[in-house]
Amino acid sequence: NKYLRQEPQSQLYKLNFNLDQFNKFEFSARNYSNSFTRRDITSDDYYLRYNYAPLNELVDLNVLASTSRGNQDYKPESMYNFNSSSTTNKSNALDISNTSRFTLADDFYATYQLGGKLMDTRYSRSFVQSNETDRNAFAPAGTQKISSLYTGLTLNKDIYQLDLNLNYTRSQVEGHKPACSANEKCFPQGEANLNLDDNAFNPSATFSAQVMPWLQPFVSWSRSSRAPNVQEVFFANEGGASMNPFLKPEKAETWEAGFNINKKGLLVEKDSFHMKALAYQSRIKDYITSESFMLCYDGQLCHDFDNSFGGFNANVYVNTTSPVTTKGYEIEAGYDMGFAYANISWSKQHTDQPTSIASTVYSFAYSDISDLPDSYATLDVGGRLFDQRLTIGSLVKFTGKSKRLSTEGISTDTNTVPKESMPDIPTVIDLYSTLQMTDNVLLRFSVQNVTNRDYSEALNRMNQSLDNAKEGSTINTTARGRTYIFGGEIQF
């Protein structure tokens, strides 16, 4: 497919300068451009960071100001029924915080952080549509403003550490809702500018103990929330009748428990071993998903397919009536003896989150339309030669079962989109090497997918697309075959 060809270009700039030993500045910029699937894509991000750290433990001031802009121009015939289409996202943010460190008593230390953040994100669109313009799900437009105050306190006493955090967040989502037709009952019935204003207090706590010089168990608890965003509130495949001005924030309660191990001299004098293992469970109330609604003869939205007007099918974002649970396990470990090393990471997860019906609006790619693999692991082994100037290693990647939305579409019995298994993903092996030729020159060479396996990556959206997938088909596109990459760094 010629439209899948691409030649992305990106540039990264960084500048660091110090006015004196107390005042430090860092400026960074990133530019990206590409043409892909009949879209011209550009993205520009900039930030300026300032740190003021005088010889005073009570003052460590950080200021971060950032701005970003993303644009997509859709070429003619790239989307059905749309012409001269484009989207633009602009975001500005300011984050200010100070960290103080002080001693409360003998062997009793505290670190206190206080800060605030402002973020303003605006989503805009333009298009020409051959029929009614307010009934489409193309790039909902609106503004989301997020302001927060946050504070954190860390207390250390003997072998114990307690981290307490609290943040207050306010989210405002604003946008335009078109009028509903006379036979559609919605609120407000006429056109209106909606403003959803949500706020929440989110606390968290972590307790750990260095019970042995090499062993630190920990347990943590947190309560968090996520306000609905512009894409969820102003989704409009049936105009104003698809919008939900009463959408509530998600609220999650999460528990974690685990331990850290750091041990030197495990097998030989100068080796080191580290390991982190944890189990977690999160329970989410008012989980935001989307459901399919028909228009019954009395004008109400309903699920009654036999007692509804034909041609009307609104995908509306709603809060689930039952909590959603996510749980899993994670392990990360590594052993290093200088001339050789090995690292491994493994995770296993499960969730009962429902399928979002808006995911079936494949032309606009709303929501995740695949699950994380039920497990995945990576093994990294290698060695260092010639006074550790040459590093040679290999990555071995294992991926468990994954699913995508079924090509059968929406089930009218359950009002969900069933999921089907993706083809098994083989073990993929990469080779890599680095050579420190001089103090200023570093070379890199790697071979990805050494065995040239033909497979599909678990979360490749091209293989989730109901647009291209056919019933009984396996995948639409595969990952790269054997790939050679050469690069380097020069410092001066």
Describe this structure in words.
By secondary structure, the chain is an all-beta fold. It contains one helix and 24 strands. It has a 19-stranded antiparallel beta sheet. A three-stranded antiparallel beta sheet has the order 14-13-15, with no helix packed on it. The protein has a two-stranded antiparallel sheet with strand order 20-21. The longest helix is centred in the middle third of the chain and has 4 residues, at 230-233. The protein is globular and about 80 Å long. The two termini are 43 Å apart. Mean pLDDT is 89; it is low at 467-473.
* Continuous helix count: 1
**What proportion strand?**
over 45%
Largest sheet, in brief, is: 19 strands, antiparallel
Low-confidence stretches: 467-473
The total count of strands amounts to 24
Q: What is the overall shape?
A: globular
Helical residue percent? Answer: under 10%
Essential attributes:
mainly beta, 492 residues, globular, 3-stranded antiparallel sheet, 1 helix, 19-stranded antiparallel sheet
What would a concise description of this structure say?
This protein is mostly beta strands and 492 residues long.
Q: What's the structural blueprint in terms of helices and strands?
A:
Layout (H helix, E strand, L loop, with lengths): L8 E10 L4 E14 L2 E14 L8 E14 L7 E24 L2 E22 L12 E16 L2 E18 L14 E18 L5 E12 L3 H4 L16 E15 L7 E14 L2 E8 L5 E2 L11 E6 L4 E13 L3 E12 L23 E11 L4 E10 L3 E3 L13 E3 L6 E9 L4 E8 L34 E8 L2
Antiparallel strand pairs: 1-2, 2-3, 3-4, 4-5, 5-6, 6-7, 7-8, 8-9, 9-10, 10-11, 11-12, 12-16, 13-14, 13-15, 16-17, 17-18, 18-19, 19-22, 20-21, 22-23, 23-24
